[in-house]
Amino acid sequence: MYIVIGASSFIGVYTVNELINNGLKVLATGRNEKFKDYYESLGVEYVTLDITKKETFDLLPSENVDGVVLLAGLLPANANVNLDEEENASDYIVTNTLGTLNVLEYCQKNKINKIISTTSYADVFSSWKKNKAINDEQPRGYSLAGDHAAYVISKNAASDLLEYYNHQHGMENMIFRLPPVYGVGPHGSLFINGKWTKSGLQIFIENAIEGKEIKIFGDRELSRDIVYVKDVARAFRLGLESNKAKGLYNMTSGNAVTLKEQVEVIIDVFSEENNKSTVIYDESTKNNTPSYLFNMEKAKEDFNFVPEYADYKRMMLDYKKELETGVYTEIFN
Question: Which Pfam families does the record cross-reference, listed alphabetically (predicted)?
Answer without folding.
Answer: Epimerase
